[in-house]
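Example 446, ligand zinc ion.
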Amino acid sequence: MNFVNVNILKNFKTQISNFTNPSSQTQSRNQTDELNQTRVYRFLFKLPKWQVDQHSNEMKYFKNTYKDYSPSEDSLLLKLRSLISSLVDEKWKSTVHTFLNLESDNYSVYTGTSGIALLKLKKLPFERGNLEEVKCLLSLHQLKNHRYTFLCGDAGPLSIGVIVSHRLGNQAETQILIERLKELGKCVLDMNSDIPDEYLYGRAGYLYSILYVNKNVHPQPFDDNFIRMIIEAILVSGRTTSKALKFKVPLMYQWHNSYYLGAAHGISGILYLLLQAKEFLTEKDLNTLIKPTIEYLLDQRFASGNFPSSLGRDSDKYVQWCHGAPGFLYLLTTAYKVFQDPKYLEVALQCGEIVWERGLLRKGYSLCHGVSGNAYCFLELYQTTKDEKHLYRAIKFTEWCMDYAREHEENPPDRPMSLFEGVAGPLYLMLDIQNPMEAKFPGFSL
Ligand SMILES: [Zn+2]
C-alpha cells in the first residue's frame, strides 16, 4: 500500500492542472528532463519526417526519470484514485465535444466512431440516454461487410451493438444484430478464403467479438460448437502454414508475407486470444500445439529480453502494444495462469521491466503504439501478482500521458480523436485505472 508520497501527489495534481488548463502558466516541479526532451522532440517534429526518424531510430523513447516504486513511501493510493476520478471528469468535459469531428464514414473501433462508442460505453455502461448515443455512433445501417474483426471490421460495431440493444431491452434488434455477426462467420470459417488469422484483420479478431458478446449477454447467444469451429479454423491454418514451410514449431502464421510475432498482427496475439477461450481448447491443443509454440517464441527474444516484431527482424526497437514486449506480456501472464509454469510469469515480469525502462515512447500517448497502451501492461501485472509496484507504474504512465498530450497538442496523430491512435485511448485508460483490478486493454483483453 505504501507507494506514493505527498510530493508525488502534489506534482501529479499540478501537471494535470497544466493539461486540463492549457492557458495556465503554472510550471510544475517536474518539468525536468522528460519535458525538456519533449520540447526537443516538438522541435524535431517540425523537420521533415525522415529526419525525425533518422534521429529517433537511435532512441525511440524518452528516458524514464520517474522515481520507481518504493514500499517505504507513505500510501496515498485512495487519494490518488479520487484525484484521478475528479480530473477525468474535467478532461471528459473539455474533450467530449471534439469527438464530433471524427470522420463519419469511418466506423471502426480502431480509428473511427465505434471506438468513441466503446469509450462512452465504458463511462456510462447502463445509462439509457448514453446507450442510445452509443448506438448512433456505431453506424449500424452503413456497415460495408468488408472486414470481420472487432478492431478494424464490422464485427466491432455489430458486437457492441448487440450489447447495447440487449441492455436497452430491444430483443428483436438484438437478434438481428446477432444474426449479422454470425453471418460474418461464414467467411471466417471458410478455409479457402483469403482471410488471415491475426488479430487486427483476421480470425482471432472475429473470435474476440464472439467471446466479447458472450461475456456480456445472457443467455449467451453463440454456442460452444460455433466457438470451437472458429478455434479449429485458426489451429488448422497455423498447422498448415507451419507444415508447408517446414517450420520446427507446430503453429505458424503469415500476414503480408511476413511471420509477425506481436499482438496486433502476429502469433502472440493469436495465441493470447486462443488462451482466453481456454475452455474450448482440448488438452492436446494446449500441450502439443500452443505450449510448444510459446516455447518457440521465447527462444526468439533479443538479448535485451524484448521480442522481435517478426521472424528475421534483428532490430530491437519496438516496445509498444502492437509490436514487441508489451503485447507479449498478456500472452505470458495468461500462459502462466493456464499452464501454472512460473517461467512464463518470470518472462512477463521481465517484459514489464522493459516497458518501464523503454516504454515512454516518442510516438506519443496512443493505445496501439504509445504510452497509454504500455500503461495497461502494468495493470495486467498488477492483476496477476497483486504487487502494488505495478499499479504505481501504471499511474506514472497515465500521468505522463496527460502531460505529454499538452506538450504535443500541435502535433496530433493522423486520427487525433480516435481510440487506438488518439486522445480517446488515454481517456479510456483514465476511466479504467480507477478500478485497477478490473481494467482491461479495450478490444483485446476479455
Ligand atoms: Zn500500433
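Summary: Confidence is low (pLDDT under 50) at residues 1-57.
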